Amino acid sequence: MTAIPDSYDIAVIGGGNAALCAAITAAEAGARVLILETAPKPYRGGNSRHTRNFRCMHSGPLGPLVESYSEEEYFSDLMKVTGGKTDEHLARLAIRTSEDCLPWMEAHGVRFQPSLSGTLSLARTNAFFLGGGKGLVNAYYRTAEALGVEVLYEAAVTHLDLADDRIAQVTFTHAGEEKTVTPKSVVVASGGFQADTDWLARAWGPAARNFLIRGTPYNRGVVLSDLLDQGVEQVGDPTQCHAVAIDGRAPKFDGGIVTRLDCVPFSIVVNKEAQRFYDEGEDVWPKRYAIWGRLVAAQPDQVGYVIIDAKSLKLFMPSVFPPIEAATLPELAEKMGLPPDKLCATVDEFNAACGDPSGFHPTELDGVSTSGLTPPKTNWARPITEPPFYSYSLRTGVTFTYLGLKVDENAQCRIGDRPVTNLWAAGETMAGSILGQGYLAGFGMTIGTVFGRIAGKEAAAHAN
After folding, report:
1. Which CATH architecture has domain 2-237+402-463?
2. d(Cα 171, Cα 285) in Å, to the nearest integer?
3. Which of 146, 189, 211, 439 is the most exposed place for a label (fewest CB within 10 A)?
């Protein structure tokens, strides 16, 4: 085992948005910072590589954001998707602080662009990164390195030695050797456990082996498990996660945001028996897209199928994979492996329940609904009649898990009623402190940015 010279004040574990915000903030406070990133350099950045926007409170126009988005409206949106399962104090802290984050992000190299149209028309609530998450990650790495932050890639942390109420030593593997470092402060920002499919299966049951992992294959929960085993306080339900319905042709790992399907509001969704199972038009997509992963997970073989017609094809951002196309519904059913008679019956029943489509409006709740249909479709309900017909297969795509490290408003971790004096957490590894269930588009980046900055500030203050 090789001991690294005792030259670092802070070790930041992880290399995504939260880790970088912590490292930059600590370095600006005068701390000597080491980032330990498990991934190779081309894959640095964790799930942040795949993000595209940041949800931000603002009292007036701010950067690319128009009009205003108040704390109360933001919190109300969060309550809708979480069903009230949130820590209100920490949630409001994240929301309030987000307004200060956007100019901070710009000052540290992040560039923004106008919001996209269609189902991602979020010009008032979400700021979109120019170059996406990869652009943000690269900007932060340039800033961190200019501040003297040292980065070790392919540095997999295996153990944090918890001695009484502090982390005494960090053990990791790098360049084929086991090494140790003894920083004054430690920030854990290494994500959830979603890439460990065995752990997912223990939580969810065998169905989890059919899930796809949207993000990095390196978030396996090694550090999270190590700390929980040593008694660091946990938060969250292991079955709760940010799970969305993605293209069933996506790879097992790292397919990213381009595999997401935004077409559900303009479709009907059926299972392998060609039966609908939920209201596709319940709410605008940024507020409801994250429920569909769990809905699909509950279906036979954890698979669903989107059915649309020609008039809906251009209303949403397409997946990286083209849809399956057919001139008739029976032909489409054959191509998708669905029972043709059952699919035709489901579509006929849906079409008969649709009313006047003249009020159809694709970017807002339009009240164009079905009548006498179970489950209903409460918005955007137009008959599926115009050939050619199209379909996408859907599978559950897990972004990150909510079982994590419980933190306080200073991002500090605890053992029982005592703080761990030199341990802070930020990002997905502590997001369960705020997200009990559900998800709101762009809120993960809010949590990571807010608590990354808090963790960096507190860790530097302790080290100094």
Report:
1. 3-Layer(bba) Sandwich (3.50)
2. 43
3. 146
